[in-house]
Amino acid sequence: MSLEVKDERVRAVPLLGRLLSRPELGAIAGTVLIFVFFGITAGDSGLFSAKGIVNFLEVSAQLGILAAAVALLMIAGEFDLSIGSMIGFAGIIIAIPPIMWDWPVWASVLMAFGACAFVGYLNGLIVVHTGLPSFIVTLGSLFMLRGLTLGVTRGITGRTQASGLHEYSAGDWITPLFAGQVFRTPIRWLADLGMIDKRADGLPAISGIPVSIIWWIGLTLFFTWLLMRTRFGNWIFASGGEASAARNMGVPVARTKITLFVMTAVAAALFATIQVLVTGSADTLRGNLKEFEAIIAVVIGGTLLTGGYGSAIGAMFGALIFGVVQMGIFYTGIDTDWFKLFMGAMMVVAVLFNSYVRSRAMRSR
Amino acid sequence: METPLVELKSVSKYFGSVIALKDVSFDVRPGEVHCLLGDNGAGKSTLIKVLSGVHIPDEGEILVGGTHIRFSSPKDTLDKGIATVYQDLALVPLMSVARNFFLGREPLKKTWFLRQFDIEYANRTAYKELSDMGIQLRNPEQPVGTLSGGERQCLAIARAIHFGAKVLILDEPTSALGVHQASVVLKLIVQSKARGIGVIFISHNVHHAYVVGDRFTLLKRGKSAGTYQKNEISREQLLNLMAGGKELVDLEQEIIKLNNGKR
Questions:
Q1: CATH number for domain A26-37+47-359, candidates 2.70.98, 1.10.287, 1.25.40, 1.10.3470
Q2: In total, how many domains does chain B have?
Q3: Distances (CA, A) of B138 to A60, A282, B135, B159
Q4: Contact A364/B86, CB-based, under 8 Å?
Q5: Which of A202, A310, B42, B165: CA 20 to 30 A from B4?
Q6: pLDDT tens across A320-336, in order?
Q7: Chain A residues with CB inside 8 Å of B153's CB?
Q8: Residue A34 and residue B155: Cα distance in Å, rounded?
């Protein structure tokens, strides 16, 4: 090792020191801690049975889909608070046309994605061209979208919910893509081998893995690749790290940020599609507070609120912690009222830890 | 005499009623360091911005390699091989050296049907280019924020040279640096000159400029106060011209008076 070192001022950095300079370390450590904690307190409550695992993974997956996109946007130095009401907005667009006017579900899903992408584009355009903080701009769209969704829904249906979508979506080719299950056969084999417990009727406790988990992992891997291994990824880091420097070097900062606003909006539409097709109903109030939950997951994942630093993998672990804690509290029988206290404290600890990690990484000689 | 790489002829620039530059001529030849000296507000920044295509002069001509040119944008100027290293250096502290080196001009490689950022090539090239210029990096993946001020300056200069700059405009590259750090940057300026690059070195530090400069142009209140070859002028004369020898003498007199008044 010492032969490779050329500069006498360089010392070999211990493995721990190198690990500490990765943004996702805090979230991975947190995940281990959470698993140990619930392993002790909720070990035999069923949280870690096949059913329990699928339950918390599903919660994590839905939030994780949002968090993956929000992580990239936050690394580029912007916030999107509008995704909370965007979920309700997209859900209503998906549910109402099939129920009211007999649209095929695939068409209304497509329209929801298009409408959200357009709103995301507008968010980005306003932020980039007015120079206003995205916090304020998207806070405005958070309220406007919720109001618009409520007003239009009540105007059309007279109510604020739309249910009974299952009978329309059941036969649609698009449903398995968002609300289906995968790995049914391997699950049955594992159950036959005794690795997954069976219900009283002899069927495995879970029939398959919800496809949302695949979306979550796939999206995280894709965004990680985008961030670390593409030109666009370099632009994301630079736009959030030092926008003026990026602009001087010819990076299209405005286009980069607008693209990311569209991406978070599309992630919100994906979240809504999964939720509406799984539950078969839409509610104008869906997605409430999801904008902040996504930010919490991203921040626990090691992304800096000020931009320029972070990771999509970290956001994935942030979302996993969220899901485990939410379901863990449920399984241990603690009053779920305590969940928010726990997550809030968790985020503050994560921010403290991450700022320590970053000051280590940036330690000048 | 060689054709100047870039030449300004009697350039004037006005901002409303303010005369920022009046009849200033300036040029730089290959393998030459031409120092542009002047106090704050002398018009140095305006001149840089005219040279780098940010401002379009109101009067006068710009010649690049002997042909008349109208710069349309900083990008256009860059494409013609004139690179400006501003004081803020256009570096992102949280990003790695290699990512900064290739910022905006990321090398791509094709894998299957995807075009990926070739990070291995970026790391290798940034490391090599910098070590060729005497900057030994510990690791091309270390964040720029961990570099010293001199190293950052050298990184910005090395980047400009790597991407084909024929003319380097350096805006106060040594002003914020300590003695050792400044000498590293000055050495890099001499190296660039040896590669045949024309360097325009903006400074108000005569000591730094005199060490590396071949010619010196003084700006005073928007006008040129003369261009001198190194053999025509001594460091002291240059200092006097620059600091306004008379003004300093006056200041000295005033301070003596103030001190006497106290007693």
A1: 1.10.3470
A2: 2
A3: 39, 56, 10, 18
A4: no
A5: B42
A6: 999 999 888 888 888 87
A7: none
A8: 43
